[in-house]
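TA notes, week 10

Several of you asked for a full example with nothing omitted. So below is the full record: structure tokens for the whole chain, then the designed sequence directly under it. When grading your own attempts, check the secondary structure regions first.
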């Protein structure tokens, strides 16, 4: 953990693609380590080829090497795979009432592309984990519900991601034009989710993204 903290600190200081001047005491004070510990770890990282260190006079310059960058990238990928497994944790909030209008207009396409007749309304969920709805869905394949024109009004494409909510099927829908911030998920389902799952504003809810083959 101490090794990783030092590498992350070096990255934050801009030691990527160029050497940055550091002081052992400065790193020690920043991270709460002893100067001896910082010096030992820097020597170990250099010996393993994860950093390049150069001492000019009394000044020390350090750069994260290509191997070091590869190590950090692989670590990020591994953490991402472990943490982001298509789980969305959030809390139920009230919407602004437009969901029912749009669901009614898209209902025939939802039935065609998702295989269920939607309840005329959406469940709005404020995402607690991960940071945004897009972080949870980035590894999932969407079903694109095509847009259409009706009575002179254009309705755009909608991306739908199948989810399960406590054993009930549904989908997170993201219109091509949305007023919702990235922390808000709109969920459709064949049932009235608030009643089916006894939900109210503030209720915690877990959505599990169904990965398409």
């Amino acid at each position: 953990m101490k090794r990783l903290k030092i590498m992350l600190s070096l990255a934050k200081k801009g030691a990527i693609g160029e050497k940055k001047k550091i002081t052992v005491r400065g790193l020690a004070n920043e991270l709460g380590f002893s100067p001896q510990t910082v010096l030992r770890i820097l020597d170990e990282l250099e010996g393993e080829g994860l950093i390049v260190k150069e001492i000019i006079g009394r000044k020390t310059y350090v750069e994260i090497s290509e191997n070091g960058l590869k190590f950090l990238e692989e670590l990020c990928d591994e953490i991402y795979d472990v943490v982001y497994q298509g789980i969305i944790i959030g809390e139920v909030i009230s919407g602004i009432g437009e969901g029912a209008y749009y669901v009614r207009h898209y209902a025939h396409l939802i039935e065609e592309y998702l295989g269920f007749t939607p309840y005329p309304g959406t469940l709005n969920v404020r995402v607690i984990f991960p940071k945004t709805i897009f972080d949870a869905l980035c590894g999932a394949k969407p079903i694109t519900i095509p847009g259409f024109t009706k009575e002179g009004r254009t309705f755009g494409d909608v991306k739908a991601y199948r989810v399960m909510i406590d054993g009930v099927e549904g989908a997170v829908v993201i219109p091509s034009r949305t007023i919702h911030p990235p922390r808000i998920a709109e969920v459709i389902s064949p049932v009235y989710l608030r009643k089916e799952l006894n939900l109210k504003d503030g209720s915690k809810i877990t959505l599990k993204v169904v990965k398409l083959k």
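Helices lie at 2-12, 24-31, 35-47, 66-83, 99-114, 133-137, 193-196. Use that as a sanity check on your answer.
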